[in-house]
Design a protein that fits this description.
By secondary structure, this protein is of the alpha/beta class. The chain is built from 23 helices and 13 strands. Helix 11 packs across helix 13, helix 18 crosses helix 19 and helix 21 crosses helix 23. It binds one RNA strand of 75 nucleotides through helix 6, strand 8, strand 13, helix 12 and helix 13.
RNA sequence: GGCUCCAUGGUCAAGCGGUUAAGACACCGCCCUUUCACGGCGGUAUCGCGGGUUCGAUUCCCGCUGGAGUCACCA
């Protein structure tokens, strides 16, 4: 049979058959309904926020009883970057996404369905292409790039569908002898699919997020194997996801239009097609056009996952944000289940939005504030130390100088029923705690505008005399109140409002003066706690310095 | 341009033939309060347009407009 001859000519050195691989990679034997998903990036080393989102969705889809694996799609040497794989693995790990199988670094993998790196799977792809050639479903094509460009030009001029098909597929029926002669001559070739599609054919399928989709059938003789013998994305996708038993292919919706090709490939290969879930991209408002566009690696710093690490957004907070984008009902669930792990939330592909969401930094920040507010002192301390060790050495050395002191600072009003939400990201910590460290305390005083210098001086001078560091918290404010009365201020805002002409202000204003003297600021957390943390000597020193500066 | 997807406030979005059109972020006001934050209460603001179908369309159908994606030996 001629096809056998062709197959031998092209793949004489291939010794295994598809059947061999089917046996090597048997059914996974998972529980009924368990899902197998994957994240399949090119190892460019740059983890895009959109890719993180895709990986997040894939891992949440697999859930606890499924399998989520990492496959490296490195079939294009031009795009490859040194350390690209480790960049991907670490990038995911930073956000708590750890695949159950797949590549773990540039050379090692775990799992029984590997190799998980496409450049190491050529022998597998070749066995399947050989079989296709044998069956007359694929053929070598010797067209040069110039020839193809020529054809494309003509097709564009004629307003025809561009691509290699029908009369343009000039090597479709090439004989083995002819091919042999060309190869002997040193001609290069690709292997193309002999597409069984009909020009008027339509296909329809159900996408897990887009719903029912109808499209023209693929009629193009797409390339299966490039001239260097590596597979195209399309072909590798079909072979890999079949052999690795992927049940749900989650990927960016830029792939939606190639589904007809993929479904056809699964069909000719005799594979059961996986379910597809095409995820809408995360968009960004374009300042120039006022419109939306995809989050761009070039234009948007937040497109790089490293941005969040640098800014100090906790990975958990970013995860919460990703989940609110993925399944908007997560927000309601989170309010009802404040302390539960995000893993308990029942993520559903079908609840994903069909349209692309605009990236909202403000929302992320809010979610992050809430997230950090629920962390305990040690967790905050650990996170800040880890972050500052990498991104703010000065802050780090300050904190490490006296870790107990730092923890006392972080514990102020932490753990309340209604916790403060002062910190949205770790890079805000330095400013937040600045007045606890002389090195950061700038000596600028933000005195209230309605206070005269004389009053400020009087309050501080007198307060210095009555200050008792040993007073328990409940006695502290009454002391301020009596000082207020002594100096002509009302005891409470109510008293003051009732008769503003009789008072210079109220006890709150007096406390405010003390606050500014001690911290330099008009607004702070609980002043008593701050003073207790600073210590008696430091408080007195700050008040003295303040008085001198007036 | 062909093919395809999408379309509810500023943003994320519930809704799936009859609703005062949820909720969250942001914004504004009030309350609580020694400041701020937190919290509570309230407010501004949304169904792209035009046709159908129907007793009745945000919801179903068609067209338009707008946005996005794709048309490689890149993924």
């Amino acid at each position: 049979m001629a096809n056998t001859k062709m197959a031998q000519l092209l793949f004489g050195n291939v010794d295994k058959t598809p059947e061999d691989y089917e046996i090597m990679y048997p059914d996974r034997g998972l529980n009924e309904g368990a899902k197998v998903t994957r994240f399949a990036p090119s190892p460019t080393g740059f983890l895009h926020f959109g890719s993180l989102f895709a990986a997040f969705v894939a891992s949440k889809t697999a859930g606890d009883d499924g399998v989520f694996y990492l496959r490296i799609e490195d079939t294009d040497k031009k795009r490859e970057v040194e350390d690209g794989v480790i960049g991907m693995v670490n990038g995911l790990k930073d956000f708590g996404i750890i695949p159950t199988e797949g590549a773990i670094n540039a050379t090692d993998e775990v799992g029984a369905y590997g190799p998980y790196t496409q450049s190491r799977r050529n022998h597998i792809y070749h066995a399947y292409v050989k079989s296709l050639v044998e069956q007359g479903l694929a053929y070598p094509c010797f067209m040069t790039e110039d020839e193809i460009a020529e054809i494309r030009k003509e097709q564009e001029a004629q307003k025809e569908l561009p691509g290699i098909y029908g009369k343009y597929a000039k090597y479709r029926d090439i004989t083995a002898d002819e091919a042999q002669a060309r190869i002997a001559n040193g001609d290069e070739y690709v292997v193309r699919l002999k597409s069984p599609g009909k020009p008027d054919g339509r296909i329809s399928f159900k996408d897990e997020v887009k719903g029912k989709v109808e499209m023209p059938e693929n009629i193009l003789d797409i390339v299966l194997l490039k001239k260097d013998g590596t597979p195209t994305y399309h072909f590798a996708h079909a072979v890999d996801d079949h052999l690795m038993h992927t049940t749900h292919v989650t990927r960016g919706d830029e792939w939606l239009s190639s589904v007809p090709i993929h479904l056809q490939l699964f069909y000719v290969l005799g594979f059961k097609a996986p379910k597809y879930a095409h995820i809408s991209p995360i968009m960004k408002e374009d300042a120039e056009t006022g419109g939306k566009r995809k989050l761009s690696k070039r234009k948007d710093p937040e497109a790089a996952v490293s941005f969040y690490a640098e800014a100090g957004y906790p990975a958990g907070a970013v995860n919460e944000y990703l989940m609110t984008i993925a399944n908007s009902n997560f927000e309601d669930w989170r309010r009802a289940n404040k302390t539960d792990s995000i893993d308990k939330f029942d993520f559903k592909l079908s609840k994903m939005s069909k349209a692309g969401a605009l990236f909202d930094m403000v929302k992320l920040h809010d979610i992050s504030k809430t997230y950090i507010s629920t962390m305990n002192t040690d967790e905050v301390f650990d996170a800040v130390t880890a972050w500052s060790a990498e991104y703010d050495k000065e802050l780090n050395s300050l904190i490490m100088r006296d870790t107990d002191y730092a923890k006392r600072i972080f514990s102020i009003e932490r753990g309340n029923k209604k916790p403060r939400k002062d910190i949205g990201k770790w890079s805000e910590v330095k400013d937040y705690i600045a007045y606890f460290y002389d090195e950061l305390f700038d000596g600028k005083y933000d005195w209230a505008e309605n206070m005269s210098k004389d009053d400020i001086k009087a309050i501080l001078t007198r307060y210095k005399e009555i200050y008792n560091h040993q007073s328990p918290s409940e006695d502290w404010f009454p002391q301020v109140q009596s000082l207020a009365e002594e100096l002509g201020f009302a005891k409470s805002p109510k008293d003051y409002k009732a008769d503003p002409d009789s008072f210079k202000g109220h006890a709150g204003d007096v406390a405010g003066v003390i606050r500014v003297a001690v911290t330099g600021r008009l607004n702070t957390p609980d002043l008593y706690s701050i003073m207790q943390t600073l210590g008696e000597d430091k408080v007195k020193e700050r008040i003295n310095t303040a008085i001198e500066g007036i």
